[in-house]
């Protein structure tokens, strides 16, 4: 079965070290899926910050809700305007 | 799955959430100014509550979500439904007979009463209203030996109370009766005839089938047929015999064996292995089965020949005498019933050609009638 991450790794994984910390998928600025998160920093209606390896990911927008969260994945829905990574 | 909703104060929410998600999933998490709402699976509810308690957080509100809103009421509904069903079943059961009791002296009439019930199609779980008590009583009263009958419906039970006719010590019934015959060999030790004519006396030795009490009496030169009744006590002998030969042969396996097999289709042999059997004494064991699960019914038959030898065993009768006697005693005891009173035990040893014979006799005093 097709797996997006596996395909990317098989194509480029030998040249660039991939999949060693986290992956982010943004679907039409309405849903963000983060794989490899280590916990949430802050949750507000306009900003959700999560910790990934050595970084902080800020999801900025409005009407933000955590659709689903597990020990290493998170799905955020809402009107997303910006995703930034902060060292 | 959004099965259970939690509403907690919006204080240190991130810390609590991080604790929870280490083990459990959270859904639909939304933080407001003063509260935070999230959902979890029902199975995780207790564990999450424990984490909140340990963190000193008191949930503002908790509730089941969606169809699970009614989850709490299911137990209550179940109990109420159970009570209602029980009451209905109890009310329904009062219309049926759940037990049939026959009481009174029913030495001779149990089967006949059961037959009457069967004829009238009366059995457990019949409707009470279907039973015609008057008819049942009159039918039972027609049975020989029954002088009185009363049938009532008590609760869910049909109680039939009967009184049998008392047997007269002199003459009761005239008709054709069978004599009392001995059911075992023995010696009469006591006999008290209640009805009939004694054919044996104390001290007589009787064999199976011998007539003990004749089914008639003589009265004024007239022979009247009666049901023979008597109390008879008898000494019964149970014997066992054991032959112990000086030299005995015991068949034992040598461990050697040989297997031939044949494959057949519709009873016709297709292949047969025929190894030569060189055993002087052997026993054959055959096993047959289908060769495969295919449509063709190929059968395979294994014939195994096990080699045996006759082992010569010399018995020392004098040395093992007590063991042989006890063996014979145990054989005799097999015929003795648990409630039999053993009166006497004896044994005899007699020589025979090439050995000895032990005969063990147990005398039991028992009431045969």
Multimerization state: heterodimer
In total, how many beta strands of chain B? 21
SS elements, strand count of chain A: 6
Chain pair sharing the greatest interface: A-B, 14 and 17 residues
Strand order, biggest sheet of chain B?
Answer: 11-9-15-21-20
Strand residue content of chain A? over 45%
Q: Report the radius of gyration of chain A as a whole number of Å.
A: 13 Å
Q: Which range does the strand content of chain B fall in?
A: 35-45%
Helix content of chain B: 10-25%
Number of helices of chain A: 1
Can you write the helix and strand succession of chain A as a string?
HEEEEEE
Envelope shape of chain B: flat
Topology:
The complex is a heterodimer of chains A (87) and B (369).
Chain A: H1 4-12, E1 23-27, E2 31-35, E3 39-43, E4 47-52, E5 55-69, E6 73-86
Antiparallel strand pairs in A: 1-2, 2-6, 3-4, 4-5, 5-6
Chain B: E1 4-9, H1 13-21, E2 26-31, E3 35-40, H2 45-54, E4 61-64, H3 71-93, E5 99-104, H4 110-119, H5 133-141, E6 146-154, E7 157-164, E8 180-181, E9 186-195, E10 197-198, E11 205-206, E12 211-214, E13 216-219, E14 222-225, E15 229-245, E16 247-265, E17 268-272, E18 282-290, E19 298-314, H6 317-333, E20 341-352, E21 355-367
Parallel strand pairs in B: 5-7
Antiparallel strand pairs in B: 1-3, 1-4, 2-3, 6-7, 8-12, 9-11, 9-15, 10-12, 13-14, 15-21, 16-17, 16-19, 18-19, 20-21
Keyword list:
heterodimer; A: about 90 residues; mainly beta; six-stranded antiparallel beta sheet; globular; B: about 375 residues; alpha+beta; four-stranded antiparallel beta sheet; 21 strands; flat
Describe the structure.
The complex is a heterodimer of chains A (87) and B (369). By secondary structure, chain A is mostly beta strands. Chain A has one helix at 4-12; strands at residues 23-27, 31-35, 39-43, 47-52, 55-69, 73-86. Chain A contains 1 helix and 6 strands; from the N terminus they run αββββββ. In chain A, a hairpin with a 3-residue loop joins strand 1 and strand 2 (31-35). The longest helix of chain A is centred in the N-terminal third of the chain and has 9 residues, at 4-12. Chain A is globular. By secondary structure, chain B is α+β, with helices and mostly antiparallel strands. Chain B is built from 6 helices and 21 strands. Chain B has helices spanning 13-21, 45-54, 71-93, 110-119, 133-141, 317-333; strands spanning 4-9, 26-31, 35-40, 61-64, 99-104, 146-154, 157-164, 180-181, 186-195, 197-198, 205-206, 211-214, 216-219, 222-225, 229-245, 247-265, 268-272, 282-290, 298-314, 341-352, 355-367. A 5-stranded antiparallel β-sheet of chain B has the order 11-9-15-21-20, with helices on one face. Chain B has a 4-stranded antiparallel β-sheet with strand order 2-3-1-4, with helices on one face. In chain B, strands 17-16-19-18 form a 4-stranded antiparallel β-sheet, with no helix packed on it. In chain B, strand 18 and strand 19 (298-314) form a beta hairpin. Chain A binds chain B through residues 39-45, 65-71, and chain B through 13-14, 17-18, 21-23, 25-32, 36, 38. Strand 5 (55-69) of chain A pairs antiparallel with strand 2 of chain B, so a sheet runs across the interface.
């Amino acid at each position: 079965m097709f797996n997006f991450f596996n395909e990317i790794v098989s194509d480029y994984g030998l040249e660039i070290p991939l999949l060693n910390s986290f992956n982010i998928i943004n679907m039409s600025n309405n849903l963000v899926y983060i794989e490899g998160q280590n916990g949430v920093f802050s949750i507000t209606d306009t900003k959700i910050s999560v910790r990934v390896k050595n970084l902080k990911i800020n999801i900025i927008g409005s009407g933000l809700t955590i659709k689903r969260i597990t020990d290493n994945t998170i799905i955020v829905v809402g009107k997303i305007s910006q995703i930034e990574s902060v060292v | 799955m959004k099965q259970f909703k939690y509403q907690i104060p919006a204080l240190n929410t991130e810390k609590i959430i991080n604790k929870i998600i280490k083990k459990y999933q959270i859904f639909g998490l939304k933080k407001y100014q003063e509260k935070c709402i999230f959902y979890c699976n029902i199975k995780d509810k207790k564990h999450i509550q424990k984490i909140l308690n340990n963190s000193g957080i008191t949930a503002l509100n908790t509730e089941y979500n969606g169809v699970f809103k009614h989850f709490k009421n299911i137990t209550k509904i179940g109990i109420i439904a159970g009570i209602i069903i029980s009451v209905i079943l109890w009310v329904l059961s009062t219309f049926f007979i759940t037990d049939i009791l026959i009481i009174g002296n029913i030495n001779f009439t149990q089967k006949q009463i059961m037959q009457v019930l069967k004829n009238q199609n009366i059995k457990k779980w019949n409707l009470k209203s279907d039973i015609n008590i008057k008819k049942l009583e009159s039918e039972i009263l027609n049975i020989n030996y029954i002088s009185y009958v009363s049938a009532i419906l008590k609760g869910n039970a049909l109680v039939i109370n009967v009184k049998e006719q008392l047997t007269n010590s002199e003459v009761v019934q005239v008709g054709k009766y069978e004599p009392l015959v001995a059911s075992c060999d023995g010696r009469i030790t006591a006999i008290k005839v209640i009805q009939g004519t004694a054919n044996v006396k104390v001290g007589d030795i009787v064999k199976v089938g011998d007539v003990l009490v004749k089914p008639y009496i003589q009265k004024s030169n007239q022979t009247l047929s009666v049901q023979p009744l008597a109390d008879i006590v008898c000494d019964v002998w149970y014997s066992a015999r054991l032959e112990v030969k000086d030299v005995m042969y015991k068949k034992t396996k040598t461990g050697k064996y040989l297997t031939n097999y044949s494959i057949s289709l519709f009873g016709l042999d297709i292949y047969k292995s025929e190894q030569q059997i060189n055993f002087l004494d052997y026993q054959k064991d055959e096993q047959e089965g289908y060769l495969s699960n295919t449509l063709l019914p190929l059968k395979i038959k294994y014939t195994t020949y096990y080699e045996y030898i006759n082992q010569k065993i010399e018995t020392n009768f004098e040395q093992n005498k007590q063991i042989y006697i006890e063996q014979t005693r145990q054989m005799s005891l097999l015929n003795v019933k648990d409630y039999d009173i053993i009166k006497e035990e004896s044994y005899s040893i007699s020589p025979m050609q090439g050995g000895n014979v032990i005969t063990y006799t147990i005398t039991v005093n028992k009431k045969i009638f």
